[in-house]
Write a structure and sequence with these properties.
InterPro entries: ChsH2_C (IPR002878), ChsH2_Znr (IPR022002), NA-bd_OB-fold (IPR012340), Thioester_dehydratase-like (IPR052513). This is DNA-binding protein. Keywords: DNA-binding. It comes from Orrella marina. The chain is mainly beta and 120 residues long. It has a single domain, classed as OB fold (Dihydrolipoamide Acetyltransferase, E2P), CATH 2.40.50.840. The chain is built from one helix and eight strands; from the N terminus they run H-E-E-E-E-E-E-E-E. It has a five-stranded antiparallel sheet. The chain has a three-stranded antiparallel sheet with strand order 2-1-3. The longest helix has 8 residues. The protein is globular, with a radius of gyration of 15 Å.
């Protein structure tokens, strides 16, 4: 766990997606940073709606016994994050498809769940 991301992982454990917002210009950004990448102002954590649209994706299936879908999802707040599309027929994933966050467990009891997205 990176220093300064503790709040993000606490929220993930609670089933909430936290993203950073600038206290000065108000813009959201991803990945989390201490200083705003737009104006260098201080940032704070805010809760995301967890809703967005698929910007682009790639299904990894050739020669893979466990196919999966890597995607960039643009959240309602305007930031785009790399993630995985889950809980669906991977042949049905499309660009501009509405999705919502769902947290999936990781290996180990002490590791927090990771944000993934499923079609709405």
């Amino acid at each position: 766990m990176e220093p300064g991301t503790e709040y993000f992982w606490e929220q993930a454990r609670a089933g909430k997606l936290a993203i950073k917002s600038c206290k000065s210009c108000g813009k959201f950004h991803w990945y989390p940073r201490t200083l705003c990448p737009f104006c260098f102002g201080e940032t704070e954590w805010k809760e995301s709606s967890g809703k967005g649209k698929v910007y682009t994706y790639s299904v990894m299936s050739r020669g893979n016994p466990n196919p999966y879908c890597i995607a960039y999802v643009t959240l309602e707040e305007g930031v785009t994050m790399m993630t995985q599309i889950v809980d669906c027929d991977l042949d049905e994933v499309r660009i501009d498809q509405a999705v919502e966050v769902v947290f999936k467990p990781t290996d180990g009891e002490d590791t927090p769940p990771v944000p993934t997205f499923r079609p709405v």
